[in-house]
Amino acid sequence: MLKALKHGLLPGLILYGGLRFMGMPIAHAQVTASPCPPVLSRLTRYTVAPGDTLESIARRYNLIPATLMGFNPSLRSGRAVVGTTLVIPPYNGIRVEVAPGKTWKDLAQTYQVRADVLFEANGCASVPQTAFIPGVNWSPIAPTTPSLAPDPTGLAGYPLPALATIALGYGWQLIAGSGQVAFHSGLDLIAKVGTPVRSVGDGVVAFAGEQGAYGRMVVINHPRGRQTRYAQLQSVRVRTGQPIKSGTVLGTVGTSGQPSSTTPHLHFEVRLNSKVGWVAEDPNGYLR
C-alpha cells in the first residue's frame, strides 16, 4: 500500500483527500467485487432544456465542453438544441474505435495515457472494439503531444517548465501488491527537486503553507469556479491573498509532506467549486 494518503483537511478549502477508496480513506474501505466497471457502461443521458448552453451543461456534470462535443456530434457546432438527448460520460475523455490486434500498450503510446489507467477505465479486461480514453480532449484533429490547452476557465499554462512524465495518474489506481483500488485526486508529475512550479492561470492565492500529507502547498482560486493545487513543494514563494498571473513562479518541486512516490514530483490538482465543495477534476481533461 502507498506510504502516504493525501487526505488531510484544509478548513474551508479541502473537502476531499488525494487518495481515497470508494469515497473513504483506504484504511477504512473494503475492496468491492467489481473494482473497475467500464466507463462506457456508466453513461447517463440528459435532455437539453430551454436556457441550456454547451458550457452550462458541461459545468453541470463537471466536464469540459470538448468532452461533450466528442460524445455528441450535435454539439460540435457549439450550440445545444432544446430537446436533444445527450450522452454524458462520468468524467473527461474520449470514445474511440480500436483496430483489431491493438493492445493497451499501443493505445497508451498513441494517447500518452498509462496502460494500467486505460485497463481500469475499460473494465480490467482485454481491449474492446470501442474504448474510453480518460483525460484526452476531443478534437476534430487527431491528438498530438500533450500540452495544457486553453479552455473557457482560462487555465492555459503548464505547471512545470517542460512536459513531465506522470508518476501517478488521476482517478482509480490499482495499488501494486495490495489488490486494492484507490482514488488519486491529481497528477504526480516527475521533476527534479528545485524545479520552478508555475501557476497555470490567473487567480488569487487561497492558501500557501504546510498542509499535512500534501506538505508545502499552494492553492490558487481561478475565475469560473476553478481551483488548482500544487503540493509536495520544497519552497513556497507566494503568500495568501496575492493576485497572480499565469506563469507566476509559486515555489519549487520538493519532497515535503508524505509523497505517494519516492521519485521527486509535483502533485498537481484541478478542482471545481460545487455545492459539496471543491471537487477534484481530471487534470488530463485540460491536456490535449
Distance between the termini: 31 Å
Count of extended strands: 17
Average predicted confidence as pLDDT:
78
Poorly predicted segments: 1-34, 141-151
Strand fraction = 25-35%
Principal-axis shape: globular
**Count of DSSP-assigned helices:** 4
Radius of gyration: 19 Å
Order of helices and strands: EEHHEEHHEEEEEEEEEEEEE
Structural class: mainly beta
Largest sheet: 10 strands, antiparallel
Helix content percent band: 10-25%
Key terms:
single chain, 288 residues, mainly beta, ten-stranded antiparallel sheet, three-stranded antiparallel sheet, 10% helix, disordered N terminus
Describe this entry's structure for a reader:
With 288 residues, this protein is mainly β. It contains 4 helices and 17 strands. It has helices at 54-60, 65-71, 104-111, 115-121, and strands at residues 19-20, 44-47, 85-88, 93-97, 130-134, 166-168, 171-174, 181-184, 187-190, 196-198, 203-210, 216-222, 226-236, 243-244, 249-253, 265-274, 277-281. Strands 6, 9, 10, 11, 12, 13, 14, 15, 16 and 17 form a 10-stranded antiparallel β-sheet that branches. Strands 1-8-7 form a 3-stranded antiparallel β-sheet. Strands 2-3 form a two-stranded antiparallel sheet. A hairpin with a 5-residue loop joins strand 11 (203-210) and strand 12. Helix 3 (104-111) crosses helix 4. The protein is globular and about 50 Å long. The protein starts with 18 loop residues before the first strand and ends in a 7-residue tail after the last strand. Mean pLDDT is 78; it is low at 1-34 and 141-151.
What is the compact description of this entry?
The protein has 288 residues and is mainly beta. The protein is built from four helices and 17 strands.
